[in-house]
Amino acid sequence: MGVRVEHPQEQIDQIQYHSKERGFLPAASYSMVHQSKLAGKERGVFSFCMCPGGFIVPAATSPDEIVVNGMSPSRRDSKYANSGIVVAIEDQDLKDFDFLGPLAGMEFQASVEKRAWQSVGKGQVAPAQRLEDFIRGTHSPSLNASSYQPGLESVDMSTILPKIINERLKQGFRSFGRKMQGYLTNEAQIIGIESRTSSPVRIPRDKMTCEHQEVKRLFPCGEGAGYAGGIVSAAMDGERCMDHLAQLYPK
Ligand SMILES: Cc1cc2nc3c(=O)[nH]c(=O)nc-3n(C[C@H](O)[C@H](O)[C@H](O)COP(=O)(O)OP(=O)(O)OC[C@H]3O[C@@H](n4cnc5c(N)ncnc54)[C@H](O)[C@@H]3O)c2cc1C
């Protein structure tokens, strides 16, 4: 879970190609990872679904939550480059939600999405903060133009993000800034919340046959069931389940 960061595409082109004029080259992309350390625990912080020349889009499934995602049109020709920057969450990070059993991850996710909505409370207007301001812990008096159509409002993101995400994101961004000179800038801003990178639950199934262990003829598959993350892995998992289903139940 984490945020989306949006830079002017020109800035990413400058960093990657050492020129703002990219000529025939495609809009530049990047892929970053950092191993964060907090209270003796290590967790990955990484870029996810980087969208060169893309848009940040609303992806909530209820009116009282804010979820953002990213996409690039085939020409990758918008003025902006965005990427999810997320922190890995392990079971041990969900202690406060343990009493909910297998749904602990879902409730953790929902609690942050709802807090993001409450921080602004205007439809799908999303909370945002300039990148350097976020690292320094200072309020952004104004925000940059953005590809996010419903609009943005300046919010101190540390009031929304749990500490385990907030602190690790800062470590990650500092590390990315050392690797990509010019990445850490107030010309960039973070927009929340990037919370649907993978399913917070997994429906159990037999490792060999993919069939649910108790409910016959049920084949939990794809992203929602916790077996894929992204278009290709979801499609491949679906094929695999169909093969097993056809073998086990030929008629
Ligand atoms: C804005 C956006 C951009 C993305 N960009 C990328 C990308 O660039 N690359 C990438 O790899 N992935 C991307 N993804 C993720 C990708 O879309 C998913 O990983 C993928 O679609 C998961 O496939 P799936 O078949 O498991 O689930 P889905 O595609 O979600 O399919 C589930 C289907 O089940 C239906 N359904 C739900 N409940 C019921 C019900 N009760 N009864 C009947 N039908 C039901 C839904 O309507 C849906 O059609 C993006 C996602 C979003 C939202």
Q: Secondary-structure map with pairings?
A:
Blueprint lengths: L1 E7 H9 L15 E6 L2 E11 L3 E4 L9 E4 L8 E8 L16 H17 L5 E5 H6 L15 E3 L8 H17 L9 E6 L36 H18 L3
The chain binds flavin-adenine dinucleotide.
Task: Provide a descriptive summary of the structure in words.
With 251 residues, the chain is α+β, with helices and mostly antiparallel strands. The protein folds into two domains: 2-194, no CATH class; 202-251. It has helices at 9-17, 104-120, 131-136, 163-179, 231-248, and strands at 2-8, 33-38, 41-51, 55-58, 68-71, 80-87, 126-130, 152-154, 189-194. The strands form two sheets. Strands 2-3-6-1-9-7-8 form a seven-stranded mixed sheet. A two-stranded antiparallel ribbon has the order 4-5. The N and C termini lie far apart (43 Å). The site of flavin-adenine dinucleotide has 13 residues, from β5 and α5.
Structural class: alpha+beta
CA-based gyration radius:
20 Å
Kindly state the percentage of residues in helix: 25-40%
Domains, number: 2
Across the major sheet, the strand order is: 2-3-6-1-9-7-8
Chain-averaged pLDDT: 96
Largest sheet: 7 strands, mixed
| Total of DSSP H or I helical runs spanning 4+ residues | 5
Shape from CA axes? Answer: globular
